[in-house]
């Protein structure tokens, strides 16, 4: 199916934080990817809940998964490849179980190198690796996911330009369609680079949307304006709830239907949520202009 379609599209919310709200323990280096082996039905159930809430996109449980990461935890390479493929299959199964699965898409999540390190460095970037070395690291996972039946690749929570360059290069090599989404702070990438420079990388074959995720909702309006000023690609935004992680989630929720409606008014085409945005918040968006999809 073509992606993205015309009009406004509502995406899903946070997979891992929704699993945590259901009392699943996600500690360790694999985060939600651990359940690909231990409890795949739990992941399928969350995908189904987001579809039932009105989401048109399910994002797979492969964000923190990598072949190296699975092998380091005792799996054979063939088993690691199968778990990556399973991440797509679970989302496809949830979609295909719908009475009318048409107009729903599966996005295969490709998180940053730092996510696989499980040390928080996906929020800093600047790993000390060249774009070539990062491309070599990402290539096996992206190739497996590209062949697993997803409609689009979600290059998400990217913290800096070097990693973005590596990922854009791989998209061109593999011929897949992908969106490119940065995690930002203070109107810049997490590594401190200008957003205009980061978004300009979207002008490359295969990049079908550009935007931000895993950030404060207050950061979204400026990022939309910058993205629209430097590229004609559709803009995708899916921030966190607005709460902050300080050993536990604290602070007010800043993600509401009204704020999402303002992002659509500002020019965002694909709107969803990230950490702590669950099915109820996604359901609340289906009273906004998103009804036109």
Describe the structure.
- Residues 1-289 form the Hcy-binding domain.
- Keywords: Metal-binding, Methyltransferase, Transferase, Zinc.
- The chain has a single domain (9-292), classed as Homocysteine-binding-like domain (TIM Barrel, Alpha-Beta Barrel), CATH 3.20.20.
- 41% of the residues lie in helices and 16% in strands.
- It is built from twelve helices and twelve strands.
- The chain has helices at 15-21, 34-38, 40-52, 67-72, 77-96, 113-117, 131-146, 161-174, 195-199, 220-230, 257-266, 279-285, and strands at 9-10, 57-59, 105-110, 152-158, 178-182, 184-185, 188-189, 207-213, 235-238, 244-245, 249-250, 268-271.
- Strand 4, helix 8 and strand 5 (178-182) form a beta-alpha-beta unit.
- It starts with 8 loop residues before the first strand and ends in an 8-residue tail after the last helix.
Whole-number tally of structural domains: 1
H/E element sequence: EHHHEHHEHHEHEEEHEHEEEHEH
What structural class should be given to the helix and strand makeup?
alpha/beta
Give the spatial strand order of the biggest sheet. Answer: 1-12-9-8-5-4-3-2
CATH architecture annotation: Alpha-Beta Barrel
What are the segments in which pLDDT stays under 50 over at least 5 consecutive residues? 288-293
Describe the largest sheet. 8 strands, parallel
CATH topology: the name is TIM Barrel
Strand composition percent: 15-25%
Compute the CA-based radius of gyration.
Answer: 17 Å
Q: Which descriptor suits the 3D outline? A: globular
Number-wise, the strands total: 12
Number of helices: 12
Name the CATH superfamily classification: Homocysteine-binding-like domain
Average pLDDT: 92
The CATH class: Alpha Beta
**Fraction in helix:** 40-55%
């Amino acid at each position: 199916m073509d992606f993205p379609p015309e009009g406004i599209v509502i995406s899903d919310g946070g997979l891992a934080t929704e699993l945590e709200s259901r009392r699943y323990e996600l500690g360790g280096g694999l985060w939600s990817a651990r359940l690909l082996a231990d409890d795949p039905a739990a992941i399928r159930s969350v995908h189904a809940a987001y579809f039932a809430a009105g989401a048109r996109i399910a994002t797979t449980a492969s964000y923190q998964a990598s072949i190296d990461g699975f092998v380091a935890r005792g799996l054979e390479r063939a088993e690691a490849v199968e778990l990556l493929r399973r991440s797509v299959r679970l989302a496809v199964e949830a979609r295909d179980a719908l009475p009318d699965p048409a107009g729903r898409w599966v996005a295969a999540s490709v998180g940053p190198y730092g996510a696989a390190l499980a040390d928080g460095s996906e929020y800093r970037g600047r790993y000390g690796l060249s774009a070539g070395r990062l491309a070599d690291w990402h290539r096996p996972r992206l190739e497996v996911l590209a062949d697993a039946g997803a409609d689009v690749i979600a290059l998400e929570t990217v913290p800096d330009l070097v990693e973005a360059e590596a990922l854009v290069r791989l998209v061109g090599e593999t011929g897949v369609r992908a969106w490119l989404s940065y995690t930002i702070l203070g109107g810049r990438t997490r590594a401190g680079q200008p957003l205009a420079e980061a978004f300009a990388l979207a002008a490359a074959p295969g990049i079908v949307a550009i935007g931000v995720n895993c950030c404060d909702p207050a950061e979204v309006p400026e990022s939309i304006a910058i993205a629209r000023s430097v590229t004609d690609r559709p803009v995708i935004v899916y921030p966190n709830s607005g709460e902050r992680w300080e050993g536990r989630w604290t602070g007010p929720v800043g993600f509401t239907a009204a704020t999402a409606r303002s992002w659509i008014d500002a020019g965002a085409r694909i709107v969803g949520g990230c950490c702590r945005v669950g099915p109820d918040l996604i359901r609340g968006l289906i009273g906004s202009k998103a009804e036109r999809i």
